[in-house]
Amino acid sequence: MTDDELLTKLDDSTRNATRHQIDALRSILDQNGSVAYLQPYLPPHNTPQDAAAFRRSVPLSTYDDYAEFINQMADTPHIQHQQPLLSVDPLLCFFYSSGTSSPRPKLIPYFDSKLSKGASFIAHQGGSAILRRLFPPRPSVNKIMWFIYADNVTTTRGGFKVMAASTYPLQSGNANWSQLSFISSPREVILGSNVEHQMYCHLLCGLRNCDSIDAVRAPYAIGLIKVFRLLESKWEQMCNDLEHGILSLEIADVAMRDSVVDVLGGPQPDLAKRLRTVFEGKSWSGIVSKLWPNARYVKCVATGSMEQYYPKLKHYAGEIPLLGGDYFASECCVGINLDIMQPPEKTKFVLLPTAAYFEFLPFDMNETNDAGTETVDISGVEVGKMYQVLVTTYRGFYRYHLGDIVRVVGFYNLSPEVEFVMRAPKGPGEIITEKDLMSAMQSFQLMLENAMATEITEFASFLDTELSPKQLKVFAEVGERCMLFTQEKIEDSLVVLRRCCSSVEDGLGGIYKVQRDRGEAGPLLLYVVKSGSFDRLSQVAIGNGAPASQYKPPKIIRNREIVWLLEESALVTIS
């Protein structure tokens, strides 16, 4: 299928959005209406074919409603599976969710569904067609420095592989590596097992091929931020490696090490000298075009919790455009970004009416309980209103809370255009949202920069309900070169931080303010933690099975294990 044919098919699906939604639900129920999960709600041979009857019969669900079925599937060998629990299609493997509030990711079953493959094909290939239309391939500058990691693959008790969704094409056994020859790193780097070593090698290979690099890519903005931080700290070592044609970093993975040495192709003294001149200029603004002069774009997801990294990425990218990503979840494709040149605050996604059956639960920031609220379908949403997204998928989730809040900003043909607002609160006990926290910390960052020239590199919050009254804890990580908490400067620093702490409280939203005024929540506790603390969290999460390629630092923490790690790293605590 040509790019024009793909985009025409994508456009046609949005012109008949309601019909495609009806067809999608009918196909899902025809295929999976008899599975164990649906049996209590859909009597045998009486599967409702219309959406209204389906919504009356089947309750809304969350991951907890599927956990028992998923654990049973994970623990039972394939040949012993008798009755289909969630889908009649064969179970291939499990994907890790990309959620970040817990150090252990959830398991998302991945079934061999022809219907789902057909639906997701248009989404994935349509996005690629949009990119090629903006940046047609060039024969001479044809490499992408793509920071992808195949991640460690684990195995369940029942013998099923578990991996990141983005890893599946690389680990499924059907990977066509010849089609990935445009990536500047060899396959051994992608398949490595140490993320920091892989990142170093990705960078080194990209520098070796600097004149052939057409683009820089990563799944999420945080991934590229880590890349440039590593480059800032290791550029001298990388230049030495290029100069001598060796890999000085202690890498135990022999295959990865040897493959990178092959890419270096012997000593490159002229290239090393040229790159040193760039680095010794000590200007990281626009560093992408200085190192990779033919690069045309940088691409990653920078919406939602990734939006905080956009200004720093823009600093590194300079005049090179930062392109956004699509709205894909581990459970299903949701929406496609037709205008990838837009910054995060203007990014909108067109809902894909063939990807799943969508419902929308009205959401109000000032309401703590949505009980009794009815969902609306794709044709019932209103521009300007916010909704929680629910999906019924081809792969075993039914009226499932995806966990996202979106705002409808318009329509593309007859399909809603939405902007991502935030992750949904987990319950009525939560008193701030990710959006509240990000807004408050943005102000905090500006105050610190003006008063102390200090950079906040990462942050998160935790509501401690074991205290009386409950108390919000905010953790802020300072930059590596911060010297403000030495014995000579600590007193002055504390004065500024107390003032900043008050500013953070003022920006945490209406629900927090009301509960503070009523005495239902105690004063804010601000922990300034040392550089590298959030990297330690990522190491713990990856060690527990979270995929490196999908890891996102938590913003709203709901697990005490994470809190203990951050509290141990505190340089100072302000209340």
Explain briefly what this protein structure is:
The protein has 575 residues and is α/β, with parallel strands linked by helices. The chain has 3 domains: 3-115 and 332-422, no CATH class; 139-151 and 178-295, no CATH class; 434-574.
Explain this structure to me?
Belongs to the IAA-amido conjugating enzyme family. It holds the Pfam family GH3_C. GO terms for molecular function: acid-amino acid ligase activity. The chain has three domains: 3-115 and 332-422, no CATH class; 139-151 and 178-295, no CATH class; 434-574. 37% of the residues lie in helices and 19% in strands. It has helices at 3-15, 17-32, 51-57, 67-75, 114-134, 168-171, 187-190, 195-208, 221-244, 254-264, 269-280, 287-291, 310-317, 434-452, 490-506, 510-518, 533-543, 560-568; strands spanning 91-96, 107-111, 143-146, 154-155, 161-164, 213-220, 297-301, 322-323, 327-328, 333-336, 349-351, 357-363, 386-392, 400-412, 415-423, 456-464, 471-478, 525-529, 556-557, 570-574. The longest helix has 24 residues, at 221-244. The mean pLDDT is 88. It is built from 18 helices and 20 strands. The protein has 575 residues and is an alpha/beta fold. It has a seven-stranded antiparallel β-sheet.
